[in-house]
Amino acid sequence: MAAPKKGKSASAQSRPGRSLALILVIIAALTGGMFASGHTTPRLGIDLAGGTSITLRAVPEAGQESAINKTNMDTAVDIMNRRVNGLGVSEAEVQTQGDRNIIVNIPKGTNSKEAREQVGTTAKLYFRPVIATELSGPGATGTPSPSGTGGASDKPSDKPTDKPSDKASGPEATDKASGEPSGTPTAGATSQGRAVTEGLKAADTPSPTASGSAKPSPSASADPAVAKLQAQYAALDCTKEADRAKAGKGTKASDSIVACGKNSQGQWQKYVLGPAAVDGTDVDKSKAVLNTQNGAGWTVTMDFTDKGGKKFADITGQLAQKQSPQNQFAIVLDNEVVSDPYVRQALNGGTAEISGSFGQQEAQSLANMLSYGALPLTFKEDSVTTVTAALGGEQLHAGLIAGAIGLALVVLYLLLYYRGLSFIAMASLLVSAVLTYVIMALLGPAIGFALNLPAVCGAIVAIGITADSFIVYFERVRDEIRGGRTLRPAVERAWPRARRTILVSDFVSFLAAAVLFIVTVGKVQGFAFTLGLTTLLDVVVVFLFTKPLLTLMARRKFFASGHKWSGLDPKSLGAKPPLRRTRRPSRPAGPVDPKEA
């Protein structure tokens, strides 16, 4: 028999233990990662764990159909994520569905009515003057009292802010001035030491500096409204979700409020803010710009409407004359401060720029927040589905029973038809199940994958797809035995043909799953994702486990001898007698008869 050509798979076939060792290492690594992450069970979707699913449809203003675009929808998703998080909700999902819908999935334990009110209303963006600010929570010291309820009080705050940056002598006349209070961005946008300048030019005149030594004693106010605000500010702890959710709630644009936000060091900051001086709807557009002319780096530019430009000029003219921190204004979205830049001069041109040590992502995030105030979109509720935990548990139980029944039927068929070969098939199914479970558990915290009821259905369908791959290979081996070959050659000769068929079949299944995932929305995507994942795992298991294991089993006497319970008995398969080469009879020595020649 000719030796196999160099580069062929003969060497790999003779050492199947390597493939088995590789897949065992993969399983061990994934399982170790699962336990190390602390997420040992797949994350469950709303329909299984219980909760509320809200479908919102974007409705543009008249003549503004182009407002429904990816940028605006992504900005709306970002805002709604902030709102849901403000309710203290963990593992909530907010995602776009199609080109104009947003799906909000909120798990059990959340007030569904409050959640609907939060995500269904238009975001409120205001520019408010800062009256007082300091660090909040354990470790913060000092409690400055607000100087009043007005927006641009001439009095400094009763006590300078506790932030180290506020101890500097005041703002500098540069785009990256240091020593100003930090901002409270969202999604990574920070504004420590950031200034607001007119247009794209740096200011030439710094605002008056604050005296770091001025520490007036707090004094109670005779005005009940001011006293109430002082009490709210003193009691506010922005490190607590409940306090942040209540801060500024129920107030009007004309009211002074207390608010929370994070600084660039990730610390919570609390504020007393004056009445809204400019509405978010007064911003015509905002964008992140890379300013290379004066080394300012990434900046955020704002263009105001005619009415908004006048209001912004008035408030910046007042703030530019104040001391820190009252020369700042807070950009407040849904009663949370997203940035608090300081003002160097009155800005009269209808445009402004926020400059500082921005990165591209944080500048873009702040620009999106500012743009949302002028977003010509509202959102209408299309559907609200509430699933109780009990109903979700029943659905999961029913899905698991269906999966167990399907698996039992497949195993029964394999035992009856393939006998000893069914051991290899069941071992392969077990490996596939372990890989599927571990990967789903890891994908929950990694990409937010949640196992919903359609995804469970996809896993059940995958049992049949996986078993089908084993059957294709087994039948190819049995065909070779029917042709008169012994088991070991039959296993190797059957593999190339079976491999091609398995790959084509799995490619078609994966392609269908990919198309379904792309063109569908909502829960159907869970079915498509699970089907695609299990199809890929089927290829891995067949190549790295099923084929090497059958190669090893073919060396065992039970299978190699064609035992009647092995499933590879040549007699029961109707095998032909082995092909033998016929030889011509040898001629006797002596002269050859001419007639025979």
The computed structural class is alpha+beta
Q: How many β-strand runs?
A: 15
Radius of gyration: 36 Å
Q: How much helicity do the residues have? A: 40-55%
Which word captures the global form? elongated
Unreliable segments of 5+ consecutive residues:
1-12, 142-192, 198-219
Largest sheet: 6 strands, antiparallel
Average of per-residue pLDDT values:
75
- The tally of helices reads 16
What count of structural domains? 3
- Beta strand %: 15-25%
How far from one another are the termini? 33 Å
Index terms:
597 residues; Multidrug efflux transporter AcrB transmembrane fold; Alpha-Beta Plaits; 3 domains; five-stranded mixed β-sheet; disordered N terminus
Could you characterize the architecture of this molecule?
The protein is α+β, with helices and mostly antiparallel strands. It has 3 domains: 16-44 and 388-573, Multidrug efflux transporter AcrB transmembrane domain (Multidrug efflux transporter AcrB transmembrane fold); 50-119 and 381-385, Alpha-Beta Plaits (2-Layer Sandwich); 124-360, no CATH class. Helix content is 44%, strand content 16%. It has 16 helices and 15 strands. The chain has helices spanning 10-14, 16-37, 46-49, 70-86, 112-120, 224-235, 241-246, 306-319, 360-372, 389-418, 421-447, 453-482, 487-519, 524-553, 557-560, 570-573; strands spanning 51-60, 93-97, 101-107, 125-135, 195-198, 257-262, 268-273, 278-279, 283-291, 297-304, 329-333, 336-339, 342-343, 351-358, 377-387. The strands form 3 sheets. Strands 4, 6, 7, 8, 11 and 12 form a 6-stranded antiparallel beta sheet that branches. A 5-stranded mixed beta sheet has the order 9-10-14-5-13. A 4-stranded antiparallel beta sheet has the order 2-3-1-15. The longest helix is centred in the last third of the chain and has 33 residues, at 487-519. The model is unreliable at 1-12, 142-192 and 198-219 (pLDDT under 50).
